[in-house]
Amino acid sequence: MESLPPMFKAASLTTEYLLQGSIMEQSRDVLLQRLIGLCDDTKSPPDNFHDHEMVFHMKNTTIQQPLVYRVRHSLVQSDCWSLRYLGNTEMGDKNKPTLTRTSIDCPVSENVVQYLNELGFRMDHEFVVKGYYFHKGRMKVTVSKFFKMNQPSNVADNLEAVCPSFLVELSVVTALGQEGVGEDMKNFAEQLKPLVQLEKTDHRKITMNQT
Amino acid sequence: MIQRVQEIKNSIGAFLFKLENEYHTIQWPNVLDNFALLSGQLNTLGKLLKSEKVPAFQNCVLLPLLLSQDRDAELEKLTEGRVFAFNHAVVPDYLRTKPEPEVEERIQAVCNKATGMNAEMAQKQINAMNKLTSNILDIINSHRESMDSDASQKTSMSQTFSQTDTSNLIAATLTGKGLKTNRRPDIGQQPGTMPNQPQVQQKTQAAMGKAPSSIKTNIKSSSHPYQRN
Q1: Which residue, B94, A189, B182, is CA-closest to A181?
Q2: Domain ranges of chain A
Q3: Which residue of A lies nearest to B201 if distances are taken between CA atoms?
Q4: Would you say domain A14-210 falls under CATH 2.40.320.10?
């Protein structure tokens, strides 16, 4: 790998183009119907997922921001685990239709939690996410609801929805600099209006408002 | 006028080229655009021909003086290679002023039928036709009404999304806002280190002087397991 010229490395598919929005519970079915109509070979009811995500942090003495890894596993298929790193979200300038961030996702075995703990990562929080996913070409659409787990490591009972609305995400993971992707996504987002307003949401503002 | 014709020719050529070379990528809206362009150009040409300034072509007489089987270089150049010779094969096509005999026959048959019908029958048929059209009109109108009301309903439809919810959800996915619980120091978790970290973060944020009230409660909740320990 080291011997490869840099241009081959740059082509790795680690850039996620992202648009986000939300849909209220009572309008969810309308949105799902529309997505079934718009996306590639979808059936009714659409494909759904039910995942448990654990977010691991590692503190760093020099940088205030912790290093964050996310472990997600399906509660339907027990052997389906993945580890994900998400970079900082970049707004880009006005001409860029989407957010971009680094996204590295890899399948792992279920002892990844133990491994991360050994490395010095500590679990910051965990949650359960339920929802539906769609594909349209290389675009992926997820409609998901987040649940707080009132009892640690109990993914079945005592769940509490964080917010009655569903988060709608439209994303493509590909190589950096493929601006055509952004245009495609913008056009697709346009088709979901006025039901959902998929847009670039400044993550820095949200993180700051929270404090 | 020749320029107009030239334009139409060019756009037809471009469209054909597209159809032949990009038939697997071309999109339907694109095809429709091309059709719209062609029909617009044909319309302007039609208007031009109908306008009074242009002498009616009907009044011009064209007389084929000479038919020859030989290749005519001049003619070939004029027609851009489409017609090689002004011969017996092409003349009937190019100088046709009447419809083809078969077409003429069919028109004649229809005309005969129309004249052969008596007035009463005709009146009946006209009535039936009127009834039919008014029925269709009614259907279209009722459809339009229902569509209009649908549209107005859509605009008056309550908000289907909320900006605050979007922000909340994104915050939850990013930083776990609203997802953190009072966790027992249990399996695989080293007590102490875990609640420690948010505390550090919040202290620095408090020093920045932002929304102190929520921070206080957060510190309390996150330090619970610590005390119990």
Answers
A1: A189
A2: 14-210
A3: A64
A4: yes
B219 touches chain A (CB under 8 A): no
| pLDDT 10s digits, A26-81 | 888 888 988 988 888 777 788 889 999 999 998 877 877 888 999 999 998 888 89
* Residue that is written with structure tokens 């695989």 in the block: B188
Instruction: Tokens for A39, please give them.
Output: 């996306």
The string of DSSP codes covering A65-124 is SPEEEEEEEESSSTT-EEEEEE---B---TT--SEEEEEEEEEE-TTHHHHHHHHT-EEE
Residue pLDDT, tens place only, B30-47: 888 888 888 888 888 888
A158: which chain B residues are within 8 Å (Cβ-Cβ)?
A: none
Cβ distance of B171 and A207 shorter than 8 Å = yes
Q: Note if the bond before A194 is cis, omega within 30 degrees.
A: yes
| Cα of B208 vs its chain's centroid, Å | 54
Q: Class for domain B1-60, per CATH?
A: mainly alpha
| ipTM of predicted assembly, 2 dp | 0.74
Q: Is the dihedral of CA B150, A19, B170, B191 positive or negative?
A: positive
pLDDT higher than 50, residue B221 = no
